[in-house]
Description:
heterodimer; A: mainly alpha; two-stranded antiparallel ribbon; 4 strands; 2% strand; disordered N terminus; B: alpha+beta; 4-stranded antiparallel β-sheet; two-stranded antiparallel sheet; 22% helix
Amino acid sequence: MKLRTLALTAALVALPSLGFAQDAEVPAAVPTDVVWIFNTLLFLIGGFLVFFMAAGFMLLETGLVRSKNATMQLTKNFGLFSVAAIMYFLIGYNIMYPLGTWAIEGYVSGLFGIARLEAVGVAADAVDDYAYASTGSDYFFQLMFCAATASIVSGALAERIKLWPFLIFTAVLTGVIYPLTASWTWGGGFVAGAGFSDFAGSTIVHSVGGWAALVGAIILGPRLGKYKDGQVVPIMGSNLPLAALGTFILWLGWFGFNGGSQLAMGSIGDIADVSRIFSNTNAAAAGGAFAALLLTSILYGKADLTMVLNGCLAGLVSITAEPLAPGLGASTLIGAVGGVIVVFGVPLLDKLKIDDVVGAVPVHLFAGVWGTIAVVFTNGDASIGAQLFGIAVIGLATIVMSAIVWFILKVAMGIRVSEEDEITGLDTTELGMEAYDLAK
Amino acid sequence: MKLIIATIKPFKLEEVREALTSAGVTGMMVTEVKGYGAQSGHTEIYRGAEYSVNFVPKVRIEVVVSDDVVEAATSAIETAAKTGKIGDGKIFVVPVEQAIRVRTGETGDDAV
Lengths: 440, 112
């Protein structure tokens, strides 16, 4: 298999002298066309893996809500993904990637309007960036990250928010809030200039989604009956097999999320790094899941599957800011700390009477902050000051913009269903369509 | 004739059924029920929040037997359902005025 792979590479780079691995004397330069093609392929593969995370989020959330709200959760997930795709096309992509054209240098992109692809059958001399990858693959890959940010919000606000105010918030989040705050780092803005390092988006994607979810959950208020006489009343998920499958799907998708963020696959160094990232990402997920499994067993006497699922995702979020530099051991530990954060973070939110149905805030925000700080342990180029600066600036901006949008929606149209509708369930009252109706 | 109502731990159902059959009981009704007695439920933890499970799952067995079988039937249930731990259940015996077999019209002890 190894030799066949080498032979294939040799054929691709048209270098007959590279016969056997041991005989390779001088590393061959890979032709730019081939680099461009391989980079593009990485974005396409990474992109469809991250796309599948949308299914993971949807199943996880639907499994953790009560059966009377399952169809609504499915509808919101399809709605939010569609809205994200439209908004990113209309304005988001160009707000996120100014390509050096700023309206306010380092802060606001000077590029407005719709995303555009390269021409049909474009030739090498006419592509947008011959040193990088196809615009279509980059657009596709980046859009999936934008949609993931919106997916994070829907779980926290489940079982009580109205459909349309949620989708309007999603439109602002995916069209403006995420692209703008992401442009400050990945678009070459002022946060990147300050030395902030966030490889695949522990802060830029996950904590932005987490902040938006937290602000929304506070403004929306808890589900009826969740906090009674100072006590937390657990509201059980209705379908744990769905939630567990969703989490494994997210785990799979994360290889594309982090691996694709290498942004290059045209050299031995790059593909070796992508391989490191896959392995580290996997290690962190395992670390997070196992830490939650062990900790809930010790603390509660019994393992709590929903915490194990959250712990796995927290491990993944934790490694996302730096999945390349650590080794397997460090990655496992970074993920494990994420799992521990979740086990303590979920009850902490409940103590504050903030009702986050699926644990999105501990997973994406708390573990996202941890992962962003943890970069300094393994990446010598990162500084704690720059990391904290990035976390604070992006967090603050997201809080302010999210709060404004949520308040406007609350005043203008109301964001919460009526008490009666909430008790009856959103499936029948908002949609007139039940999820589990087959037996009738 | 007597009606014996026994609530037992669900996992003991098969043992109790075998014991009753050995004691000469030829039929029974079984229902899955929830309830509590001296055990008065227990607590569980979901996502870090403790909650009490007030109603514990039990199996309710109902058999109607002639008076001379009552002693054997109740002791069969008692022996088979016993674990010695809290929540083993209870057995009630109540008089039955009449029994009628629908198919043949037989009554009394002949019908049970």
